[in-house]
């Protein structure tokens, strides 16, 4: 990619977003959460309110650019008292200097999806929490970019265009993946509470448009994990995807010890290496590894031992969802 392209696009993007002034109220974003029926962690962020244009199939690039940069550029609210309501319980917390808050709770909750609500003196928000049934023994942990969402990570100019100049209604899903995930998780005793995690390296500011994409394209409901990127030491590693993914997958394995997981990713970045490390260190917990080949010349490069090419799996998938 030409050196001037990224700075030029970011300059135009910043100019496009600047007129979007912050409102007086609070906007509370709750990130998807999960628990084991006894404990759970709920995280969110308090930011200034801002109007976002509705997503449409015929939106132009400038409209998309303005909206997408609006997700990335926001004003955090620090030190805000927040009340989180879950399962009839009300829990108190406060946002940190970056606007984030976290609640660790010991609550007895039934398996399935639960609504979470959070309120401040100047705003409120809603989210979901998945309690995984102990009868469900098989889960999926899936990468997002170039695994279920066509992003073209290996072509940086195309990646930037896909990320900034298109919206959730216009982005392309990898054919067959939604059906494959649904069929795989249907083998569980309670598929409605199956442990499905979408592990994205995108910043948390983009979790809402990614969630929109997942829902629009018929993927099973799951817990979307995105990266906390801040200006202080609490930030997760911006470029070290290996450390970031290992940390979150190990956390999932620790919190759901009765579940074996299929790890799904692509070879555009470091998913094969990450998953190979996990296969070696947690052989009894990793049921399979599926890799989508997207790198130039990937077909000539062998996969790690015990890793499967997704193309072969998708060849046997009925692309139409079951009625």
Automatic annotation (TrEMBL):
The keyword Magnesium does not apply. It comes from Pseudothauera lacus. Residues 139-293 form the Phosphatidate phosphatase APP1 catalytic domain. The keyword Signal applies. Pfam families: APP1_cat. This is Phosphatidate phosphatase APP1 catalytic domain-containing protein. PANTHER family: PHOSPHATIDATE PHOSPHATASE APP1 (PTHR28208). InterPro entries: APP1_cat, Mg2+_PAP. Keywords: Signal. GO terms for molecular function: phosphatidate phosphatase activity. Residues 1-22 form the signal peptide.
């Amino acid at each position: 990619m030409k050196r001037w392209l990224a700075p030029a696009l970011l300059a135009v993007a910043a100019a496009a977003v600047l007129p979007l002034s912050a409102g007086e109220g609070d906007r509370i974003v709750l990130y998807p959460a999960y628990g084991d029926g006894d404990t759970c962690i709920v995280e969110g962020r308090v930011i200034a309110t801002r109007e976002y244009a509705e997503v449409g199939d015929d939106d132009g690039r400038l409209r998309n650019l303005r909206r997408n940069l609006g997700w990335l550029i926001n004003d955090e609210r620090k030190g805000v008292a927040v009340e989180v309501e879950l399962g009839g319980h009300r829990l108190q917390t406060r946002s940190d200097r970056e606007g984030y808050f976290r609640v660790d709770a010991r609550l007895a909750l039934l398996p399935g999806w639960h609504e979470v609500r959070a309120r401040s003196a100047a705003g409120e928000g809603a989210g979901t929490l998945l309690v995984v049934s102990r009868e469900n023994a098989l889960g999926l942990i899936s990468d997002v970019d170039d695994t279920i969402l066509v992003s073209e990570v290996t072509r940086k100019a195309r990646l930037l265009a896909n990320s900034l100049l298109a919206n959730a209604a216009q982005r392309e899903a990898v054919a067959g993946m939604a059906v494959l995930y649904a069929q795989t998780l249907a083998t569980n005793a309670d598929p409605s509470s199956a442990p499905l995690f979408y592990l994205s390296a995108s910043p948390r500011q983009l979790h809402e448009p990614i969630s929109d994409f997942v829902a629009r394209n018929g993927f099973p409901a799951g817990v979307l994990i995105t990266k906390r990127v801040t200006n202080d030491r609490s930030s997760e590693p911006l470029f070290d995807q290996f450390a970031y993914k290992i940390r979150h997958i190990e956390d999932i394995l620790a919190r759901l010890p009765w579940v074996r997981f299929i790890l799904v990713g692509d070879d555009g970045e470091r998913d094969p290496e990450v998953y190979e490390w996990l296969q070696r260190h947690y052989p009894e917990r990793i049921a399979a590894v599926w890799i989508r080949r997207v790198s130039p010349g990937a077909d000539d490069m062998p996969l790690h031992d015990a890793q499967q090419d997704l193309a072969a799996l998708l060849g046997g998938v009925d692309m139409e969802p079951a009625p």
